[in-house]
């Protein structure tokens, strides 16, 4: 096939899509498959007091590397970044399977995360490179389906491997999947040769990359561990937050002087990208309410067994990809911004309805709300990702995609910290003392409702969290209403292949009915 502008040029696009879905599955399965094997891992390696870093360390590495990989993919191409990222992820998986103690496993999980950042960002970018705007919803819907299937299959696969084989197999199973993905990418994905617009050799802003990594690591570590491993007013928290604040200043100074900054200023100067960043940051914030607190609510308040509680949560993974796939029929009529605003408004109303459920209620009630929430978020997220990717050319798409994913990941981290504090504050006021959600749920068997005073306190705590999540959805709505243009400035096909300038003047308004 010939050159199609700045887009990736595969010999067989279907084979490349299969590779992207396999690569996305590696990242999507990771947390869910590991979580079910934690008891076996702790029983074998010990380290119960620090096992949470199996997840925190991986999340930190993924989040702080997203902007770096986004810029590298714009500079050197998607293929080398994806191949190297997949190789690092598989190396980390192999090392995790060979870990001899908990600290070694945590270190190797961080190595996995260093590769996982490349998988998440580059796969989403390539999905936009491979298809024109009219066809992008199809590939995005497929990727959403991968996340949905992984959310359901991950715990089951992890439990089976831990119970009937060995926990090390949850990492070894990544190797054949990743090997097939790598083979397909190397064999079938071909990109046009990249040349610097100035004709000079591309330069990498390594100082900016290392500073961003350090800044993000300090901030996210403070948010993840504050109030858990140490109090918010302790020396570690204050030191990490102070270090992060100082490094923010250093990052700004470095990036303003860099010839090819990792985080260019146009990411926040362009209204469309800035609005999508804020809206998806709010999406990450609100997602914490169901993913973290709903299983506890289902078990402690409704008295469901863990499997049934997991089903209450997992139903949104059924409606989300279906809604995402159908969203193209909506945004082609009313536009990306209006579709996303509709989804965020519906999400706010659905989350707001949760505290008004009957107490203690039946399992079908939160299940129905989760089904509706997934449908609302499908209308919210996918139009924003497809829309913002369509406003930039090939040379800026990696950076843009990484910025919105970074904001979503950061929103989730902030949400876990913020809503955890809200839930613990409500519990403390209801039960007295320094009660927190973990301590009050450890004194009774799973699958049975907590004692009545505790059950009522947990219900109130989760209701408060859902109110906060509804407010986050409302913030996303306001960000789009006040900041985003009525019509996203979509690039023409000819401009799509060229590096975009620092303005939106070369864009054209997306198709749809005229603005009123």
Measured distance between first and last alpha carbons: 43 Å
Structural class: mainly alpha
Main sheet: strand order: 1-2
Average the pLDDT over all residues and give the rounded result: 82
Number of strands: 4
Count of discrete alpha- or pi-helical segments spanning 4 or more residues: 20
Radius of gyration: 23 Å
Uncertain residue segments: 1-11, 498-506, 512-516
Q: Helix and strand string, N-terminal first?
A: EHHHHHHHHEHHHHHHHHHHHEHE
Major sheet, described briefly? Answer: 2 strands, antiparallel
Helix fraction, binned, reads: over 70%
Descriptive notes:
This protein is an all-alpha fold. It has 20 helices and four strands. It has a two-stranded antiparallel sheet. A two-stranded antiparallel sheet has the order 3-4. Helix 12 (271-300) runs antiparallel to helix 13 (306-314). The longest helix is centred in the C-terminal third of the chain and has 38 residues, at 394-431. The chain is globular. The protein starts with 8 loop residues before the first strand and ends in a 7-residue tail after the last strand. Mean pLDDT is 82; it is low at 1-11, 498-506 and 512-516.
